[in-house]
Amino acid sequence: MDKLDKSIPTPLYYQLLIILKEKIESGVWKPGDIIPTEQELMEQYDISRSTTRQAILALVNDGYLHREKSKGTIVSSPTGRMRFVGSLMSFSEEMDSKKIPHYSQIIGQEVLPASEAIAEKFDIKPGSSVYHLKRIRFVNDRPFLLDEHFIPYYLCQGIEEKYKNNTSLYKLLKLEYNFNLHHGQIEFEPVVPTSKEVIDLLKVNPTTSLLYVARMVYSDQDVPLDYFTAIIHGKFSIDVISTT
């Protein structure tokens, strides 16, 4: 498949996404390669800029591509990558189901203007309001992970007044804002602490092995709802990583 079929109901952006993804997964485009520009793809496939941009943005959010201002859109190096679909349990629900003692501590929460990188993930304008939450999560009274969430504020206005320590964020989003957290893309890679904050909050030393996780969660209509990152210390399972 290397052309779009406008006679079928499958959205054009999704057809283009599949074509570009196949080029990456088959090795036609290798990590570090610069892919054709939006204009070139528009002309090649006879589609609009918005359709082209939607396909590229989805691949950026899924970790297949990344953008560099001075170069363009580049094929990313593969890391641990996993797609998950279905009911998403919160960290609290996951720990409760395993009968593991846990609690959360808010480091900070605020409504702030979206950086260019965050705006790109949600396909909103830089400077648009986003809700930012940063927490440390404890398991068995020991720091387990440091996490951050970014959510477009127009989807969750007033949440900064409603979210408290030990509240399940996803439960709050479902009950108060009718979020349909349906599926997502998660990436993970081994890291060592990169800041004094991480060392101090997780109580680790500069050479401790940690796990970095990044995840986008979407609605059943593929609307990006939540961008989440975490640095995890200690033992973990895929269930814990993918259902924070």
Q: Report the average pLDDT across residues.
A: 85
Task: State the major sheet.
Answer: 7 strands, antiparallel
| Percent of residues in beta strands | 25-35%
Name of the CATH superfamily of the largest domain = Chorismate lyase-like
- The strand order across the widest sheet is 3-7-8-9-6-5-4
Overall outline: globular
Measured between the Cα atoms of the first and last residue, the distance is: 36 Å
Structural class: alpha+beta
What is the CATH-assigned architecture of the largest domain? 3-Layer(aba) Sandwich
**How many H/I helices?**
9
Low-confidence stretches: 236-244
Under CATH at level 1, the class of the largest domain stands as Alpha Beta
Return the domain count. 2
Order of helices and strands: HHHEEEHEHEEHHEHEEH
Q: The CATH topology of the largest domain is what?
A: Chorismate lyase
Structure summary, number of beta strands? 9
In angstroms, what is the radius of gyration? 19 Å
